[in-house]
Structures are given as C-alpha cells and as structure tokens.
Design a protein that fits this description.
about 375 residues, abc type-2 transporter like fold, 15 helices, mainly alpha, 2 domains, four-stranded mixed sheet
C-alpha cells in the first residue's frame, strides 16, 4: 500500500512537471529550435570539408605546364586560380585574400622535361588551420598529378613496391554533415537536459512553490525524481524526432544501427544528466546564478567529450578525469558505436551500465543537496 501511494504521488508530481514545462513557451521554443533549425544550420553551415579554397598563382614560367597546373585548380575544392604578380603576393597574403599562393619559377617546364631538380613555392595562410593542413595536401596532389601526366603521359617511370588502397568505413565520402549532425544532436541533448532540469528546480524556488511541496504528503526523492523523469522524457522525445525527421530524412544521413537501442541509451543518459542539472541548481537561488554555473560546465562537457576533438588528442590526465567524472565521453562513444557502426547490445552494454552507475551517483548527490540546501535551507 505504501509503495502504491509512493508511486501515485510520483505520478502526480510527474504530471505537474509536464504541465509546468508546457506552461513555459520560451523553453518549448528553445527545445524545438535546438533539435530542428540549430541541427540543420550547424551541420550544413559549419562544414570542415575542403571547398572553395582561394588560390593565387605567380606564373613566372608562362609555359604549357604552368598553364596546365593553373587550369587544374578548379571547383569544388578550389576557386578558379587568380594570376597575380610577384610584387602583389605578400600584400595579398597579409590581407587574407588567398589561402594559398603558388609561385611557379622561370624555366620550370624546361627543368621538368630535362629531369633536372625543380622547385615550386607555396605560401600558405596558416591562420585558416584546417584548410592550411588539408588543403596543402590536396594542392600537392593536384600539382603532382599534372606534372606526372605532362611528363610521362599519366604513366609512372617504375612500378611502385607498395600499392596503397584506402577505404573509409562508415562515412565513405567523408561527408562532414553525417558527423556534424549527430554530434550536434548529442550536444543539444546534454545542454537542454541540464538546463531544463535545473530550471525546473530554480522555478520552484523563485516562485516559492517549494514551500507548498513541503506541506504535501510527498518526500524529497519523489520531488527530485519527478523533475528528472519529466524533463528527461521531453528531451528524449525531441531527440528521437530530430534524429528521424531532421538528421535522417532532411539531411539524408544514414542510420546504421538500431534506433530503439539508441533510445534506450539516450533515456538512461538523460536521466543522469538531469540529475546533474538538479545538483547544480541546488547551489543556485536564481536563474541567473544557475546560468552562470551551468555555462562553464556545458562548455567543458561539450568541448572535452570527444565529440569535437578525439579523446586521444587530450592530455592523459584530462582524458581520465573526463571519463571518470562525467558521462558525456561515454555517450559519444555509445552513439558512434550504435549510429555510425551499427553496433548491437553486446557491443555497447558496458556504456549502458556506466550510464546507470553515473545516474545513480548524480541522483544520490542531488537528493542529498536538495534535502540540505532546499528543504532545510
């Protein structure tokens, strides 16, 4: 009987939280925007692919080979090459007009045909770090191919001892939209779950309705759990709809694995992050304080989760700290295993267990803080 009463109270508090979310139109607009327009604009607008690289050429040879190289610099990777004089090169690079400036020296074609050492100089604007690194490789390949075709008719002088064949698994076209859209969904799940759950508690404190709860036949665990479940449900529903309609249908990103398995993992993960949001909210007395506290936490969770930069590129101590104290790196690995690689339950069960453990710890801490800082404070 006591268990039924406990569940009944939890149910009514859960419904109250859903109605509270429904009564906050700004928060609902934020959720809709974050899982629709924000996903689309970020994944399509913040592309890391090589497109439209600005190239200038100082052609001091004016030969058939130099013209062949210039004509090969074409869209979509490069913009059509612009010829400039040697005197304009430094100023053009300083003004940021071009990412690459290719200098073809006099007698370049003659040296190539005579098999004499020949050099080309490429000046690179390294402030565009992604384009500077990957673009220089693409530029070298274009130049090497044109020289080989011009000198040897597209053949090679000797058989290569090793033939390297590269195949890109899970994203064969190296399309950044495939990766960026899913990473953005994960980041928004973390951000909005933490914000919504924390805001639910702050709203109670600012409106003074916490005192109303204190005179009701409810306990702290019911209050906290209702907020965690209600806000987690809203985010999970929005995330799954975004995955299906925005990522898969609108952006044409293939989903390799089970959506139901992703739903299970996301549900457990959001409950742990919602508990973290409640925990942060217990250290705040107003929405402004909660925002100032949540911003640095969200920045750390998103930037150091392994979704934007590989965990292997981080210092060892920082990698272990993130994996030990937070669930976000594990959620990134879980999502990539399920949605990119098509992994099944046998491959990701350990991540689900990690989510459960972290969720239990965060919930216990938030419950203790709620009792001491909110109910007694």
């Amino acid at each position: 009987m006591n268990a039924l009463r406990w569940l009944s109270n939890l149910y009514y508090l859960f419904i109250k939280e859903l109605r509270s979310i429904k009564a906050d139109p700004i928060m609902l607009v934020l959720v809709v925007y974050a899982f629709t327009l924000a996903i689309y604009t970020v994944s399509t607008g913040a592309s890391t692919e090589l497109k439209n690289l600005a190239v200038a050429v100082v052609d001091e040879d004016d030969s058939q080979l130099s013209r062949k190289i210039i004509s090969a610099l074409q869209p979509p990777i490069f913009q059509e090459a612009v010829k400039i004089s040697a005197r304009e090169a430094d100023a053009a690079l300083n003004e940021g007009r071009f990412v690459f400036i290719l200098d073809i020296p006099p007698d370049f074609e003659r040296d190539v045909l005579a098999d004499r050492p020949a050099e080309l100089q490429v000046e690179i604007d390294a402030t565009a770090i992604v384009f500077a690194g990957n673009g220089s490789v693409a530029l070298q390949n274009v130049i090497a191919n044109e020289i080989s075709e011009f000198r040897y008719g597209g053949g090679v002088t000797a058989a290569a001892p090793v033939r390297l064949v590269m195949r890109s698994a899970f994203n064969p076209n190296l399309n950044s939209v495939w990766f960026g859209s899913l990473m953005q969904v994960m980041n928004n799940i973390t951000m909005l779950t933490l914000i919504l759950s924390g805001a639910a508690l702050i709203r109670e404190r600012e409106r003074g309705t916490v005192e109303h709860l204190l005179v009701m036949p409810v306990v702290a665990s019911q209050i906290v759990l209702a907020k965690v479940l209600a806000n987690g449900l809203v985010i999970v529903a929005a995330a799954i709809l975004s995955l299906i309609f925005v990522v898969h249908l609108l952006l044409s990103v293939p989903i390799q694995g089970s959506v139901l398995l992703f739903l299970l993992g996301t549900t457990i993960y959001t409950l742990s992050i919602a508990s973290m949001g409640i925990l942060l909210a217990t250290f705040s007395t107003s929405m402004a304080q909660f925002g100032l506290l949540a911003i640095p936490v969200l920045i750390i969770l998103n930037l150091l989760s392994g979704g934007m930069t590989p965990m292997e590129s981080m210092p060892v101590w920082l990698r272990y700290a993130m994996q030990t104290l937070t669930t976000t790196p594990h959620f990134v690995s879980f999502t990539q295993a399920v949605l990119f690689r098509g992994g099944g339950f046998s491959l990701v069960w350990q991540y689900l267990l990690i989510f459960v453990v972290f969720g239990a710890v965060y919930f216990a801490l938030s419950l203790m803080r709620f009792r001491s800082a909110v109910l007694k404070g």
